[in-house]
């Protein structure tokens, strides 16, 4: 993949320097027809503002919720979403793929 | 991610230098490896491969699960010569994800009507090229057939260490070009870097087919490991 990411990593740095709590969520593995490739990322701050995408919109809501916990605890966490998992189906990765997302605090 | 790592990652990305972020997905430990340091890294084989493919991946090393996140700059293509082939080459390269710029001092050639939506610079190479930040993530092709334009452009491409340099012209034309460039200070190793005749030998006839052969050759240079690259050439 050629790097076409809008500058969300720059935003992560700027937010952190401005004193916000920031988390970075990165797709680390995909199976089946996942919408975004490994390496795609989403940056979330403690106000719930987010930039980027890990699934083209399907599971971002759930990732943002988890990111809030990661910002609070400072402990990284691995999330998995897929059609085989009922909860994941509820948050809607309806494309039929499965993704694993690593969520970590910045700073 | 530590702020220091994020800061360094952003600095490398801004400078268009490739890096790989290695994350232990169980412990959360991370380190950033610059491409200049790949050779002395214990993961060098994996790092080289993933960077070449421009693809992030998981590897398991010594019982550790590592995620290698590849940050490669967007590849650029600079086309010197707003000729018929370039009209096919520019949109094709763009569809492959390249940032494309066309340079030709001849305004009759470098016109927006002939190149809709493609950045055009209607200046001589010595004026046009320096602001384009031609670098090691740039493929560079010279297709004007005019030594007054192609030669200075190629000298610039040598200096900037483009990952691919191609020039239009038969073997005979290319031999003469080599003599001229040497007279202007180019080394034999520079001249050996020029792919000429340009493009993979697929029997291309039309401008669009020649564009396909050029992009196929650029893709091979970008993606294949060194040994297979030689076999494809």
From TrEMBL, chain A:
Originating species: Bradyrhizobium guangdongense
Residues annotated as domain XdhC- CoxI: 15-82
Listed name of the protein: XdhC family protein
PANTHER family the UniProt entry points to: ALDEHYDE OXIDOREDUCTASE MOLYBDENUM COFACTOR ASSEMBLY PROTEIN, MOLYBDENUM COFACTOR INSERTION CHAPERONE PAOD
One Pfam family, short name: XdhC_CoxI
